[in-house]
Design brief:
about 280 residues; alpha+beta; Helix Hairpins; SH3 type barrels; 3-stranded antiparallel sheet
Length: about 280
């Protein structure tokens, strides 16, 4: 091939390539603009549901890079770049990194699922596995609880996701039970009516569902009554209402002379009396 023919061949190839290059550049620039818009949209949407700046920032970046990578691959395809080989290389690299960061990736995925499901929120009173307290923070890595004793517990998200979760704050009404030991010589029906009337008058006890007092079991030194009542924990303190009920039952029992026995033991001495 002479010089003129070679030059013509190069020019024809360039003319065929330039439109593809321009299209690729336009697509790449459009991808950058679109990725920025998607990142802002994700940030606004997630921020309205999650009170965690780090998580919002992370999800926003993931959205930005996801759109950017996809657009870059499409742009490279316009200039006949070997996209298949590139994707295969990314896949191998992803698998390698995944094995190396297995625990981190598991916690991240579990964190994403928890954020989507939202079984609890910041400030909720929860029980997760053997830990009970209020939720301090929720991130893509872990969930932090503050126990009722003031201790901070950091739980990996994979443990949270695979554990039974009890959310005490999800429903406003909670039921409490007070067990009362009643002397065997006492009139059970009278005690039930008296305690029930007393509980109804305690501040914080709901009228509906109505409180109940039932005989629970026959103990060694007393018949056990179970007094059950409901409290709206958004309007009244659960523990304070429980305490008021216990005090009210004790006071009315003392006023009416009702025996609330404590466990006793009788020892018989051989050949004589009792001590």
């Amino acid at each position: 091939m002479d010089f003129e023919g070679m030059l013509q061949y190069i020019l024809e190839g360039a003319l065929r390539f330039v439109p593809r290059l321009v299209a690729a550049l336009v697509m790449f620039v459009a991808t950058l603009v679109l990725s920025s818009w998607v990142a802002r949209w994700v940030s606004r949407t997630v921020r309205s549901k999650i009170d965690d700046p780090e998580t919002v920032k992370l999800l926003s970046r993931l959205a930005r890079w996801g759109v950017a990578v996809l657009g870059t691959i499409l742009a490279l395809d316009q200039v006949n770049f070997d996209v298949t080989g590139f994707l295969a290389g990314l896949g191998v690299a992803g698998i390698t990194i995944g094995f190396a960061l297995q625990d981190i990736s598991r916690n991240f995925v579990a964190g994403m699922l928890l954020l989507l499901r939202q079984p609890f929120g910041i400030g909720d009173a929860v029980k997760i596995a053997d830990h009970t307290g209020s939720v301090m923070t929720i991130t893509t890595r872990d969930t932090v609880l503050k126990t009722w004793d003031g201790e901070m517990v950091i739980l990996p998200n994979i443990d949270v996701f695979t554990s039974a979760i009890t959310n005490y704050s999800e429903l406003p009404n909670r039921r409490r039970t007070v067990f009362v030991g009643l002397g065997y010589d006492e009139d059970v029906s009278h005690a039930q009516r008296l305690f029930l009337e007393t509980i109804r008058g305690v501040e914080g006890v709901l009228a509906e569902p109505a409180p109940t007092v039932y005989a629970e079991e026959l103990g060694d030194s007393a018949l056990t009554l179970a007094a059950r009542f409901w409290v709206n924990q958004q309007a009244h303190s659960l523990l304070e209402t429980h305490s008021r009920v216990v005090q009210a039952i004790k006071e009315v029992a003392e006023q009416e002379g009702i025996d609330l026995p404590y466990p006793t033991q009788t020892v018989r001495v051989a050949g004589g009396g009792t001590s």
